[in-house]
């Protein structure tokens, strides 16, 4: 009886908590934030500020508008040439988002770099809004959520970082996020310990579609490499290169030290082994986010990938054959010299009563039997309605294949497709029709899966 009573009490408590959560959610959602009012009537001043109904509001990413209390709407203007940093000023003060930068007079203010502002004696860094660790969810229940209000509850804040030790007269931009004064180096307002600012230089990508483009997060001096203000472990300045995956919508980057042969992800060094498997002497296999869901690296012991969900290097499989590499001119098609391998970017979703939830994303490698690399003969491009190329057509014996120019961003989740009716495919493509509906997935017909790299989102 005692056990049954205890279970009943647990059930009652559980149901009560669920009811409170539902009521709270409904209460919050029904409270009017007046966001749409500001949206309809605002006068944009920059990407960071708007003027509405005689007041100035700072734009806080993910949390709407914060009223800049005390700002003079008549004289307020963004501060800075590009206007991307949340810096503004009126006749009386300089602001970082909705905060006054105390002690900085507008007449003496000068922008040193994007987000950095100084007067004759002092300097500050002003950043985009970030989550406020002091915020508690219960505050939204008792405080104002009206975005027009000077007292609205905010779960984000604009960081203002003073640079008390900076030599202001010589402070200058190294790139968009680093500044130096000849003696010290700063990243987003914080001192970069051990850096030599007299010999620093920005870094650019060495391969891929982003080749030659500077990545502001990286910088090097005569002896070390730094990522977002922190020194990268064991990275030699003279031999360290950076690159990023093609078709990468995130800020994910890789580094490679040519001296040690070690790879890095966003400044983190790859481990020497994973689950007891040697992960040294790796080389890039595939890094194209439009055709794969994971970036793949390979050595003689395994195929590995950096799992961005777990933030660690993981082992995917033993290589199906030695010497695996991409086929020249064919993105995401692999060969070992004897066989051909296709790839697929697959997502698995769980369906509940009201919505779908992403469970996992994987990259599959599969062998295409009976087709050797030397058998492939190019038939030409598959042309679209405007005569642009949609990809290439290939023949290997009696088999016809289509290799799309685009990837999963255009619903082509596989790197190669079987073509059963070439005439119909060409007619559909030239008329602007949806060609993926008449293509066959090779690995469902005759492919043999040899490797799966999987990231879980549950």
From TrEMBL:
The chain crosses the membrane at residues 12-30. Keywords: Membrane, Transmembrane, Transmembrane helix. InterPro entries: DKNYY (IPR027375). It comes from the Bacteria. It holds the Pfam family DKNYY. PROSITE patterns: PROKAR_LIPOPROTEIN. This is DKNYY family protein. It comes from Paraburkholderia acidicola. The lineage of its organism: Bacteria, Pseudomonadati, Pseudomonadota, Betaproteobacteria, Burkholderiales.
